[in-house]
């Protein structure tokens, strides 16, 4: 069996382009491994693609508007990438959400196998 060589930098760019368009659920479906593990800034661990998607769907069900998504920077080295974002959202009840975060991702066979959020107010 041949080892597949994947251009992580190209994968990161494609994933981040989808996020910038607000296609976050679609990006997760396209770029995340079935066995992905996610560590949130509050210490919450999510295991598996199905659980990650369900959590995101539940979160976005409470969002009234996406006011802006800004990608400040991205980098990759080997199987690790980082993307720095600001997410400006408003919940359906009018509560604003402003997240500044860095998403550190580890890649396996061209898919995100591990993702960690570093969030600041």
Walk me through this protein's architecture.
This protein has one domain: Nuclear Transport Factor 2, Chain: A (Roll). It starts with 7 loop residues before the first helix and ends with a strand. The model has no long low-confidence stretch (mean pLDDT 92). It has helices spanning 8-20, 24-31, 49-61; strands spanning 32-39, 45-47, 63-77, 80-91, 96-108, 111-120. The chain is of the alpha+beta class.
Outline of the structure:
This protein has 121 residues and is α+β, with helices and mostly antiparallel strands. The protein contains 3 helices and 6 strands.
Kindly report the CATH topology: Nuclear Transport Factor 2, Chain: A
CATH class division: Alpha Beta
Low-confidence region ranges? none
Largest sheet: 6 strands, mixed
Please tag this protein with its features.
Nuclear Transport Factor 2, Chain: A, six-stranded mixed beta sheet, alpha+beta, globular, 50% strand, 28% helix, 6 strands, 121 residues
Secondary-structure topology with pairs:
Elements: H1 8-20, H2 24-31, E1 32-39, E2 45-47, H3 49-61, E3 63-77, E4 80-91, E5 96-108, E6 111-120
Parallel strand pairs: 1-6
Antiparallel strand pairs: 1-2, 3-4, 4-5, 5-6
Helix pairs in contact: 1-2
């Amino acid at each position: 069996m041949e080892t597949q060589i994947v251009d992580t930098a190209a994968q990161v760019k494609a994933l981040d382009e989808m996020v910038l368009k607000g296609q976050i659920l679609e990006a997760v479906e396209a770029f995340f491994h079935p066995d992905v593990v996610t560590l949130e800034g509050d210490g919450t661990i999510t295991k598996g693609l199905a659980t990650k998607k369900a959590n995101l769907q539940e979160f976005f069900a409470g969002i009234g508007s996406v006011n802006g998504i800004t990608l400040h920077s991205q980098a990759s080295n080997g199987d690790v990438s980082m993307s720095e974002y600001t997410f400006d959202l408003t919940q359906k009840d009018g509560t604003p959400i402003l997240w500044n975060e860095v998403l550190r991702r580890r890649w396996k066979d061209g898919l995100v196998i591990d993702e960690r959020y570093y969030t600041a107010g």
